[in-house]
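question for whoever is on the cluster today: can someone run the full assembly for these? three chains, 286 residues total. i dont have access anymore since they changed the login thing
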Amino acid sequence: MIMCSIALLVIVFALVPELPEVETTRTALASALCGKTLHRIEARTRQLRWPITPQLLKRAPGDTLLAIKRRGKYLLFQFPQGTLIAHLGMSGHFRILTKFLPPGAHDHLDLIFADDLLLRYHDPRRFGSLHWTESDPLHHKLLRSIGPEPLGDDFNAAYLMARAANRRLAIKNFIMDSKVVAGVGNIYAVESLFGAGIHPTRPAGRISLARYERLTFAIKDTLERAIRAGGTTLKDYFNPKGGGGYFSQSLAVYGRGGETCKVCSAKLKQILIGTRATVYCPGCQT
DNA sequence: ATGGGCACCTGGCTGC
DNA sequence: TGCAGCCAGGTGCCCA
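^ ran it for u. tokens below:
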């Protein structure tokens, strides 16, 4: 429960917002904003990764925020008239203000709700996006081709194995393909492949079902632990001195190229796959 | 169909 | 110390 005395609820991540961070954001925003009436929207930029949908900015006041859902790393703010589809990109975050503060640099958009609640979108690198749709959001161009949710039951070893048949693509790129599975980014791909003992450049079509069992378990386990850690940290948002990174403390390989493997003491290698930094353990991952 | 690579953007880091 | 240049990184899209 959000109390009236809270002046500011800040959600800041040390790393790029990945699925657990988006889910943590969703939970926090939903508890504070669902059921509130939207009075107006103020945009200070029209262009993020794509132009902000003009209809969003022309909307008449008075809609009640019904729910905030998530699909992959997209947040879906559901109103009676339509849905705001938001992506945090590389550096985006939402912040709830309970009293007005002048916008700073990169504070691109405010959603102003009843009871002096203000939801502010901040995104220095502007890789995020804000779309408005009055149709089924799951049919939106950005969402309709996304694969299953990684935490759902339909994401499993048999599914991955079937999708990987005859694919020569590196397994890391395969699991980062949003058409294969939603919302697995670079950090969690690297961590999950380490957890499963699979070399990141191994062709996706040349991995056994047993190894896909380990990989799906690792993906789910890594994401779930991060969400739980985020949930724990969420309590600290109420403390102005709280916060700080949370899951970074438990990263096994990401960002540790050249350091020692915590399992076998081998020196972790850092390579580029495509254009993405990839860390793996030559001892543990084959 | 598949896979590789680019563009978008800017803060932060590196090296001169 | 200051400045220029480089790089990361999610994801849609283009091209071979």
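summary bc i know u wont read the tokens: Residues 1-14, 232-246 of chain A have pLDDT under 50 and may be disordered. The helical segments of chain A are 19-33, 54-57, 157-164, 171-175, 186-196, 209-234.
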